[in-house]
Structure formats: structure tokens, C-alpha cells
Amino acid sequence: MGQWARREDERLLTGSGRYVADIEVPGCLDAVFVRSKIGHGALRTVDCAAARAVAGVVGAWSAADLSDMPPCAHAAATLQDLPPVPHTVLAKLSSDEAVAGREWPALVKDRVRYAGEAVAVVLGEDRYRAEDGAAEVTFHVDPLPAVVTPAAAAQDSVRLFDGLSNIALEGEAGQPIGDDVWQRAAAVVEGRYRQNLLMPMPMECRTILAVPEGDRLTVWSGHQMPHRLRRELAALLGWSQEQVRVVVPDTGGAFGSKSASFPEFVVVAFLAVKLQSPVRWIEDRLESMMAATRGRGQDQHARLAADADGRLLAYELNIDADVGAYPHLGVGLPMQTAWMATGPYTTPKVHATLRSILTNTMLTYPYRGAGRPEAVIALERSMDTLARRLGIDPAELRRRNFIPPESFPYETPTGRTYDSGAYARALDLALETVGYDTWRAEQARRREDPAAKPLGIGISCYVERSGGEPGGLHEFGSIEVVEDGTVTARLGAASSGQSHETVFPALVAKYLGIDEQRVRLIEGDTAEQPQGLGSFASRTAQVAGALLQHACQLVIEEARKRGAELWELPVDNVEWSDGTVQASTNGAVMGLGELVKNTGPLRVEDRFETGMAFPFGTHAAVAEADPELGTVKLLKVVTVDDCGVQIDPAIVRAQAFGSALQGIGQALYEAIPYDDAGTPMLGNGLLDYLLPTFTEVPPIEIKDTCTPSLSTPLGAKGAGESGCIGLPAAIVNAVVDALRPADPDLLQMPLTPDVVWRAARAPKLEAAP
């Protein structure tokens, strides 16, 4: 690969990447959406006449002008991608019931339900003319009372949909815990935690380019699930899937936020077909901050009980989740939190209840971690509170309660079956790497010095799920060999920055025993690979990698069979070695390319399914708090992650580092504030929504352990989401440990200067643990 670490690097770092915005199509029109700034209200009028008169504007439409346009994908099209509900979750409303009567319109028809919802669309000969036209669209919305928190919305005094409750879905995992368990416990702690609403913030916002050719449509989009997008757009247009092709070009990040058929996609595809003209929409950053999907957004109440020795007895978690204005895919995300409530501990009784609640905010959707960070934060903050109550070191409390390695596979009280784990090993490595005892000594010294800034050490032990849910743990693909020996691997996945172009050819080359430069990868194109699931849930190494390994084995078996037929030998007398077939009896050898020349094209394709995997690890943070300024300085961060067998350690390390930065962002900086009318207070863009920059990046040491998965052929587990899942709790625990407020619930994410300043002045614990 020369000077480039990855195959993708030369193209992307020299400006030769090809994103949707770079694709040149003659006669392409640009779409601009007109959006409501009001969070809840009745739409009375929309007037596009003045926009149509603007030079260079090709058309402008409201929902009333497009009465034959379908709604956004919903119910049957979207919620079929939700995982099946395990027997341990008793869903009081089904996914279809959650959506029925609450469909997400492509353009607002009668009521605006979140600020940023589109009321009209303008097409122009270029983006500038379309923007000029959009500025001329006038509309009137009569404001209605808004509800922007789950607590307010759950009261149903303001309903987003007439006659329907704002509680779209209810469920539970595990079994209710009797009062006797809590009564006999030596210690019971409670905590209330707010999981702040976040923005995924990929470098490239949402994009789509629809190019019609009669009764066929080619769609270019930076998307994580091209086959799902094809399926949903075809259904909305009333076409067969064969009439729609979806291509994913270079994509500037996704983090879960690019896996839907968004209302804007429906409008663009519909108008492209209606006008028989290419139409493109490129979301800009301010638009994205107003109208793109959110992550997290839960209010939680946790209760944790232990005996006098610190052995856990019971854990209860109640979740009120903000799923935004429409019950799209995010309505099921709290299930992930409930299922993962157990964490890495042998808690005998665990019970989680959830309510997915509609609010006048943009929709909550999968964002890196998707339900698992919420579970970890609630449990790990509760563990630290329990450690203080019992006077036990937080690390020791965790160690006493870990599921032991010999207990795997381990079925949790919430119905998950963990494949493998060595949790104490990850904890020990994290403590050693961070210098736990040294920092504890420094902490004690500072507590004796009134002039010293308080210092705290926080740890967080996590287990997450990777690969997807049962029914979605498979992938499709093929391997083809041509006469010159070139090998082409096709996958149903789609990269948005995870280095597939480097990792997967190397994987194929390894299993076939050939030079990786002979292998090329094709993915993200429904014409090249007709079936596929996509890239989400940290699944591509675990699931797609296993598919490629399986396909390589099929290639080897077919090559041995052909060699046997060619040499008139039994198959058992033909071996495979380093890209060649070899006859064990007469010494004949033939390379893969020559074999294809003599026997014809060689192509294998299949569907391959794996089991679920459960990565784990321990994250540690050392934080210094300034009581006067309310600032937090991270002095050291350590992540120890176990994703089983690593296919490419350098890529895994990069994923761990990137997700750690996003975990820091959630803990310290990022949140979407709404006013009472449902308007996000982000008028100054990234001046209002803070992201960690190079200046705020602390020293981060990334370590790993390896406990192979028992349910995947490669032994691999997902690696892409660890920092978002494990690190926020470690950071908050470190600040709580530094300030020692009597009420740790005062410290809610993000730990802004105001939050920290107030906690520093609150009553303190009487003594350090």
C-alpha cells in the first residue's frame, strides 16, 4: 500500500473522493426544503406562488400540491427492521400499533409536530436559485402548546395525535422484584439520570440524488442500508425492487443516522419520477442541526440493592424515552437499554420497564451505541453510589460481582445470552494502565490541601451487544474469480468510513492465500449485489466478515472439485495451498486464474448467518474539577475493550479512539436545548452545540484484551461503539468522585460549567469513602 495506511486513504485524503455532492448529472435540479420554526401548531396555509416566479426555479410544492405523493416510510416498511421481541420483554403495544395513526408525512399536511418539519419543497436549476425560491414561500402556523420532555408528554394533556396517547410503546424485561428483596438488603441506592439528546454530527450530512430513466430510478445516497432504502422507495412508488437501484458512493460518516427513508428522500424520489428529471438534495449543517435525527434522550430512575459484603441482590431500571414527534425506528431503542440492564454482573434479579414517549422534538434514532450507553450509564453510576454507601472501593465492588469466565455462555435475567467474557482481566488492565493506586494517593493528598483542585477517578465496566438481533444476524455476498486471477468480493454492506475497502480484501486474501492486491471489493450497490442488510450495529466484521470467510471456503471447495475433474482424480487427492490447487499424487499444480481459464468462470454466492456477540471492557477517567469556574479537565483516559479476535488491530484502535471522543462529547459538552415552544436553541450553530475539539482531547491510552466469541466463526465481536458506551459513565463518576456531593444526581450530562459549579457548592458527603 505504499505510504497510505488504507486503500481508501489516497483517494480520500487527496480530494479524489466521490461523494453525492460531487456526482455530475446533466440537467440535475437542486431541492431546498421550507421548514417550520414552530415546534407544534396547526398548518393553515402554504403559498408557493411567489417562489414559482423566481428566475431559475422549476417548481415549488406543498403537500396540498402533491396529493398523490406517499407518506414517509413507516409501519410495515420501517418497523419490520425492528428486532423480534424476546420472551422476556412484554410489549404492551406492538410496533405496528405504535405507528398506526401516527405516520410521518413527507411534507406537513395539517399539523407541524417538530421545529424543522418541512412544509414545502422548491426545485431550482441550482442550489442558489432554489434557496432564492424557498425564501419566497409563505405559510402560516397557528401555534399549539408543545411538550418537549418525556415527563410533560406522558401526562397526555397535550397530545401530538388527536385521540392517541403520547405513550407509543411500553414494555419490560426481566421479572418484577418483590418488596422483600429490597427490605432485606444491607444497602439500597437510588438515582435519577438524564441521557441528554445528542446530534450524531457526521462530517457529511444527509444526501440523496435520484436519477430517473422512464420506469427505473437510480438513487445515490450516503446510506448505511442501501437494500432497505431500495425496498422502501420501491414500495412507496408502487414499483418492484428491480426498478430501483441504490448506490452508496464515498460517505462522510453516519454513526447510525443514515439508515432511514427520510421524508426528504421520499419527496426527492417522487419528484424525480414525476418530472422525469434528476433531483438532488444536500443537507447543510444548520439544516441538519434543525431537522436531522437525534440520539439518546432518556429519563431514568434506577434502584440497586446489595448485601453487607457488596454482593448485588437486585436492580430495577425505569425508562421514559424521548422518541421525538413520530414513532419511527427509535420507538424500539429503549428495548436495547432494557435488555442490557444487567451489565457484566451476576445480579440475581433485574427488572427494567420502558415507555417510548412522543414529544415535539425531531425524531430520536440510532446513534453510535443505540440504547447500550443508556444502560451502562444508569448501572455504572449506581454502582459508584453503592460503593460510597458501603465504603467499598468502586473497583473492588465491581470485581466481586462480575460474571466469572467459567459461567459463559451466560443467560441474564433480561434474556440475553452472553457468548464469552473475562471482565476482571479488562478491569485489571484498565486500573494498571491508568495508574489507579498512584491517582488515589494524589487524590488523598489534594483532599488535605485546601488550595488544590479536587481530583476524581471514575471507572465504568460495560457489556454491549453487536451484530444485530435474531433474524438480522446474516449477510449476503459473493466471490468471483476471472481468468487473470483477479478476485472480486461483493457484499450487501456499505461503508461510511469503517475501512471496508482495506479490511475485507485483506481478509479474503488471507483465507485464499493470495496477494491482497489481487482482491477488490464491491459493496453499496444493489445492482451489483442484489441482496444485503447493510452496515449498522457494529456488525460488518462479525457478520459480513464471517460471510466472506464462508465464501472463501466455497471457492476452495469448488476449485478442488474442478482440479479433481481436470486431473481425473478423487477430490480427496487435490489440496488447496496459497491460491493454487495441487494434486497430492502426481505433483500437478495450477493457479486460480489458470484453473478458471481451463474450466470456466468461478463464482460462489450465499447467505451466511452468525450468532449474537457481546463485546465488553472497562474505561477509566481521571478528572480535575475547578470549583470556581465549574470546568472539568480530563487528566487521563484509558479504554480497555474486548472485541474478540481483531481482523485489523489498527482499524479497531481508530474506532476506539473516535468513539471515545464522542463519549467525551456526551459527558461534557453536547446537548440539544429546547425552549417551551419546542424550538431548539441552536441559532448559532456549532457555537451553541459544542463538540470536543483538538484542544479538549485529553491523553487517551487505548488497550485491549481478547476473548474470542463463541458464536461467530471468526471469533470477532463488534468494535465500533465502545467509547460511546463505556466512557461517559467513567467521566461522570470521576467528577462525582472529585466533588463528592451528597446528592450525586446533581451531576447530569453534559457536565457544563454551570452544572459543575452548582454541584461544587452543594452539601458534601460527610467523609470520603
Structure description:
The protein is of the alpha+beta class and 769 residues long. It is 29% helix and 23% strand. It has 20 helices and 28 strands. Helix 11 runs parallel beside helix 19 and helix 15 runs parallel beside helix 16. It starts with 6 loop residues before the first helix and ends in a 9-residue tail after the last helix.
Secondary structure layout plus pairing:
Blueprint: H1 7-13, E1 29-35, E2 41-47, H2 49-52, E3 57-62, H3 95-99, E4 111-112, E5 118-124, H4 127-134, E6 138-143, H5 150-154, E7 167-174, H6 179-184, E8 187-195, E9 207-213, E10 216-220, H7 226-237, E11 244-247, H8 263-275, E12 279-282, H9 285-291, E13 298-306, E14 312-322, H10 333-339, E15 349-357, H11 372-390, H12 394-401, E16 410-411, E17 417-418, H13 423-434, H14 436-447, E18 455-463, E19 474-481, E20 487-491, H15 500-512, E21 519-523, H16 540-567, E22 574-577, E23 580-583, E24 589-591, H17 592-599, E25 602-609, E26 616-625, E27 632-642, H18 649-668, E28 700-704, H19 722-739, H20 753-760
Parallel strand pairs: 1-12, 10-11, 14-15, 20-21, 27-28
Antiparallel strand pairs: 1-5, 2-4, 2-6, 3-5, 7-15, 8-13, 9-10, 9-12, 13-14, 16-17, 18-26, 19-20, 19-25, 22-23, 23-24, 26-27
Helix content: 25-40%
Mean of pLDDT? 94
Q: What's the β-strand tally? A: 28
What separation lies between the terminal Cα atoms?
Answer: 54 Å
Shape assignment: globular
Coarse structural class: alpha+beta
Radius of gyration: 27 Å
Specify the CATH homologous superfamily of the domain at 298-400 and 407-468 and 613-760. Answer: Aldehyde oxidase/xanthine dehydrogenase, molybdopterin binding domain
CATH class of the domain at 298-400 and 407-468 and 613-760: Alpha Beta
Our count of helices gives: 20
What CATH architecture of the domain at 298-400 and 407-468 and 613-760 do you see? 2-Layer Sandwich
